[in-house]
Design brief:
Length: 326
């Protein structure tokens, strides 16, 4: 049976760091509050002249170098983002041009913080059905440009960056085991950016207008994130006859340390089996899992044959879980 195997990982983040102490100077907050409520200490922010495609391209090049795959061999690019370079066309097409992946079909996926899990699922299904052999799956965001730096409920949470993986068709039992992705459109306005779509076009959503920025009802999202990620993770394991105790590493979406701890508890996973790097990057939405995966991979925290799992939750609402035999 044809399976999709992750053969290379890469990440790229901006140089510029925004610490909790920097935020203390612009909003009514404290490092102590942010660390205790979220686990975040600092996040990266893009500078002028740096775009979502800038980091996506670098991450993709690093993943291809690790996989030993050249750009002309890539036949599919799926890029997850909610902060593309333009409303359209797809940032995936900009990356395709940058890396010269002349033989690829390229498109974006909009599933907010679950974007990477959605994009990986799409690539997996292309590969299983014979529609692609070598795919690039990218999660990339420049979220700091849709932050309202007068809103202390949101601006401290998010950061910029990109992560990418090369996924290749292989024969056998290794690779992406299965995936479970879900959505519920009844909660669109719990986490969204109202402005710049055609309900509130540019003119109505000028800078300074709250519509222009990411809006979130944090408390509600928190509860739904814990419940839905927990359920997706347990269900996808059960569907495949896998036990939670077989997991070597859980790489969750990096939104809030307390959300991650609650999921780890539900899966009875000890601290050392859960990868967390949000203290350094904050929530990078679709980029958070592939950035964490690349760090874990390059630090040799994943061995051949290990069962790892990605789990994510985000606006839409969207959520999902993907177990992978490394
Ligand atoms: O990526 C996918 C989705 N995103 C998430 O999963 C994020 C989910 N939500 C969260 O992570 C949390 O809800 C937040 C971190 C956003 C907020 O944490 P919370 O524990 O839910 O805090 P809260 O909103 O209930 O606020 C608690 C208190 C309030 O004061 P009172 O009413 O108890 O006096 C807030 O006014 O903390 C206050 N507060 C702050 N204080 C200092 C809220 N924001 C801040 C702040 N600094 N930045």
């Amino acid at each position: 049976m044809m399976r999709a195997k992750i053969t290379g990982t890469g990440a790229a983040v901006p140089e510029k760091v925004l610490t909790n102490f920097d935020l203390e100077k612009i909003i009514d907050t404290s490092d102590e509050w942010i660390v205790s409520r979220t686990g975040i200490r600092e996040r990266r922010i893009a500078s002028e002249g740096e775009f979502t495609s800038t980091f996506a391209t670098q991450a993709a090049e690093r993943a291809m170098a690790m996989a030993g795959v050249t750009a002309d061999q890539i036949d599919l690019i799926v890029l997850a983002t909610i902060t593309g370079d333009y409303p359209w066309p797809a940032t995936a097409c900009i990356v395709q041009s940058n890396i010269k992946a002349v033989n690829a079909v390229a498109f974006d996926v909009s599933a907010a913080c679950s974007g990477f899990v959605y994009a990986l699922t799409i690539a997996d299904r292309f590969i299983r059905s014979g529609g692609a052999k070598k795919a690039l799956v990218i999660g990339a965001e420049v979220l700091t440009r849709i932050m309202d730096y007068t809103d202390r409920n949101t601006c401290l949470l998010f950061g910029d960056g990109a992560g990418a993986v090369v996924v290749e068709a292989v024969e056998g039992e290794i690779g992406i085991y299965d995936s479970l992705i879900k959505s519920d459109g009844n909660y669109v306005d719990l986490l969204y950016q109202p402005g710049y779509g055609n309900r509130y076009p540019g003119a109505k959503a000028k800078a300074g207008d709250h519509l222009a920025y990411l809006n979130m009802q944090g408390n509600e999202i928190f509860k739904l994130a814990v419940r839905n990620m927990g359920e997706a993770a347990t269900n996808v394991l059960e569907m495949n006859g896998l036990q939670e105790s077989e997991l070597s590493l859980l790489i969750p979406h990096q939104a809030n340390k307390r959300i991650i701890d609650a999921i780890a508890k539900r899966l009875s996973l000890p601290e050392e089996k859960v990868y967390i790097n949000l203290e350094r990057f904050g929530n990078t939405s679709a980029a958070s899992i592939p950035i964490a995966l690349d760090e874990a991979n390059r630090a040799n925290k994943i061995a051949k044959g290990d069962l790892i799992m990605f789990v994510a939750f985000g606006g839409g609402l969207t959520w999902g879980a993907v177990p992978v035999r490394w």
